[in-house]
Amino acid sequence: MTAQVFSRHIETYSLWKAQVAKEIRAYRLWLRRNNLFTPEGDMRLYQLLETLRSDYVTIAFAGEFSRGKTELINAIFFSGFGQRILPSQAGRTTMCPTELFYDRETRTSYLRLLPIETRLTDIPIADYRGMPGQWVEIPLMADNPSEMARVMMSLTETKVVPVADAVKLGFKEELLDESENEPGKVEIPAWRHALVSFPHPLLQQGLCILDTPGLNALGSEPELTLSLLPQAQAVVFVMAADQGVTASDMAIWNEHVASLKDRPNLGLYAVLNKVDTLWDELDSRKKIEKALSRVVRATSRQLELKESDIVPVSAKQGLLAKVRDDQALLLRSHILELEKLLSDAVLGYRRQALWESVIEECAAHVENSLQLLNTRREQLLSQKHDLENLQESNVEALTGMVQKAQKLHEEFKRKQTALTPTQRLMDRQSNILQGIISNEVISQLIERTQGRLMNARTTVGLVRAMREFFTEIDAIIGELSHQADLSNRMAESVYRKFENEFGLQRIEPRLLPARGFRRRLHEFIHDADELSRLMQIALNFESLAVRRFFTTTVAQITEFLQAVRRELHSWGQNALAPLSQQLASQKLTVEQHLQQLQNMQRTGATAAGRIKALNTLVMDLDGEAAQAAQMLETLRSPPPEDEDSNVVAFSRAWQR
After folding, report:
1. What is the predicted pLDDT for the residue at 560?
2. Model pLDDT, residue 95
3. Is 424 exposed, middle or buried (0-12, 13-18, 19+ CB in 10 A)?
4. Which one is predicted more confidently, 506 or 368?
5. If you average pLDDT over residues 131-154, what whole number do you get?
6. How would you classify the pairing of strands 207-211 and 57-63?
7. Residue ranges covered by each domain of the chain
8. pLDDT at position 133 over 70
9. How do residues 379-424 score in pLDDT, each as one tens digit?
10. What is the pLDDT of residue 545?
11. Which residues pair with 209 in a beta bridge?
């Protein structure tokens, strides 16, 4: 095992994505070359490519204040700078949630800081992302580690305010430190949120890192619990090995992290940091390891996590070992074990998510196209067989073949005409589905809930109003799921009808994930309901905490419903596309054959020339089918095994 493991896995994952994207682009060209192109189908493939392009792999670090989360990030990802990049010294650490990534749109390096005073509004952080004027932006000199580290010290900035002002900003008084110089006042973070973009090799390849500062941030920023943490592929919960699981650790775990355990495609891990505080020169290494094993077992019981998902590490010693290239110290720090665990799990989860959201659908498209080519091949062979039975200069037989082709052509036109009312029916069903979750319906529900919150006079009343909102949303999605089931059965019925009555190849229709809609909503509602119960919010809707929580909840649900509407719209446009494509392909083959036969009638040409042309067409089709089969095999192939060669170690990528 080397310190390059995370970089190797990220590199392999990126190469795999690039290969998938290459195959999808090749398939788009292949469709045009084989007269199977449709605007709707091409747009869907473009959307799948965009999903790959915009893909991020996110690792979130959560835990109580001063557990060494930021030092752990420095040790795992940024040791190649030869110094700390993020502030993690004692008493000088990040004070606000910080996202580290590479901005692919602007391709610039910067530190953006959102002032803490923006908490006085009910605007979610997600909305502020589109308001550049609200952020303080500081350029980063990515080629100067010392200067970059100096700028990053801005993340540690605090300000002194009266207790009442701190409470208004959403802080809990009991979690704040009193100012040493100004009695009666408390110290709070100067910034609400930070965005850091710079071209580190891993960040450029799509890695995103989220650093959270502790309970006062998690407790007062609903987006962290409802959006940012659940969107990660791994959440690393950091504690101190010498303290074990403290009461405040358990508070964060129970209120903000534990619910993530059952999420698909998300790994949840615990880190017992600062194991070097347990190192004792008077004790043997074996005795120390036994002590660590006891702490791991106790942590496993308390957090209900598998022992294999709990890693004792020393971030400080791991960083030092990497900077000094001290392999013995590196092994003793256990940093490599954590890197291996995260890289295997995180990329595995993300790969599975892309498999479900991109590859399965694209592979189904390619399979359908292969079926169309096989049908076209059978048509050509049938035409060839008829021509081979045609006697030389047999005008009567040729006329019969022309009439047969004309009849087939008219039959395919009737089939296409029969598809038109069916498409209208599917369009109506798509409109019904979208109407269930229309902007008007959701806006009315939001207004009703706001009224209930305004009239509530107790915490119980506020929680009840929010739960009524969740219940009504759930009922709406329940109706949507029911109608989606009906839509799926309708699509299956149409496909079987055209298969049985018109002799089309059997194709499986694209179905709506009816149960998936409700499952995804239930996950969010569960988290939001728990958070509303645990927040200890104020007694009236004028409370900023309540308004921010409600606004964040509404924003998250609205974003979810917008994604569902896009999916419904796409389904309505493409539900019958494979049938339409099959009919159009077969009709085109018949048209071309009819034209050739009519040309033979006009010119008196023999069948031999047409038979030769058909042989060439069949050979060409076989070549195109082989290419499509190769695309399908490549798409469905698992990523290659990681290799040690030709990969830049993330810990050394910035050494010059």
Report:
1. 87
2. 87
3. exposed
4. 368
5. 95
6. parallel
7. 103-195, 393-605
8. yes
9. 899 888 888 877 565 777 888 888 888 888 888 888 888 888 988 8
10. 66
11. 59, 100
Residues present in the chain in total? 656
Residue corresponding to tokens 């500081």: 138
Q: How far apart are CA 510 and CA 497, in angstroms?
A: 16
CB atoms within 10 A of CB 343: 23
Alpha-helical segments (H) within 54-177 = 69-77, 125-128, 145-152, 163-168
> What per-residue confidence (pLDDT) applies to 538?
44
Structure tokens at 644: 């040690």
Q: Which two tokens stand for residue 316?
A: 């400080």
CB-based contact 512:483 (threshold 8 Å): no
What distance in Å separates the CA atoms of residue 141 and residue 78, rounded to the nearest whole number?
15
Residue with tokens 């530190």: 111
- Beta carbons of 100 and 211 less than 8 angstroms apart: yes
Half-sphere exposure of 27 (CA within 13 A, CB side): 34
Q: At CA 517, angle to CA 511 and CA 522, rounded to 5?
A: 155
Amino acid letter at 622? D
Query: What is the amino acid identity at position 379?
Result: Q
pTM score, whole prediction: 0.79
Measured between alpha carbons, how far is 551 from 192 in angstroms, rounded to an integer? 17
The winner for highest mean pLDDT among 153-162, 165-174, 508-517 is 153-162
- In angstroms, the Cα distances linking 471 to 130, 239, 461, 465, 467 are 31, 36, 15, 10, 6
- Residues 243-276 have pLDDT tens digits of 889 998 998 898 889 888 878 778 899 999 999 9
Give the span between the Cα atoms of 362 and 42, in whole angstroms: 11
C-alpha torsion 181→183→188→190, nearest 10: -50
Q: What is the CB neighbour count within 10 angstroms for residue 487?
A: 22
Within 8 A by CB and 6+ apart from 149, the residues are 81, 83, 84, 85, 87
CB-CB contact of 544 with 552 (8 Å)? no
502 compared with 340, residue with greater pLDDT: 340
Predicted pLDDT at 215: 62
Q: CA 331, CA 528: separation in Å to the nearest integer? A: 41
Q: Where are the alpha helices (DSSP H) in 103-245?
A: 125-128, 145-152, 163-168, 201-204, 215-218, 222-223, 229-231
Q: How far apart are the first and last CA of the chain?
A: 24
What is the sign, positive or negative, of the torsion defined by CA atoms of 270, 276, 278, 281? positive
DSSP string, 492-551: HHHHHHHHHHH-PPP-PPPPP-HHHHHHHHHHHHHHHHHHHHHS---SSTT-HHHHHHHH
Long-range contacts of 504-508 (CB under 8 A, 24+ apart): 504/579, 504/582, 504/583, 505/371, 505/372, 505/374, 505/375, 505/582, 507/368, 507/371, 507/578, 507/579, 507/582, 508/364
Average pLDDT, the chain: 85
Burial of 256 (0-12, 13-18, 19+ CB in 10 A): buried
CB 358 within 8 A of CB 50: no
* Mean pLDDT of all residues in 41-69: 90
Which of these, 134, 316, 353, lies nearest to 238 by C-alpha position?
A: 316
Residue 655 has pLDDT above 70, yes or no: no
Position 62, amino acid? A
Tokens of 66: 């001063």
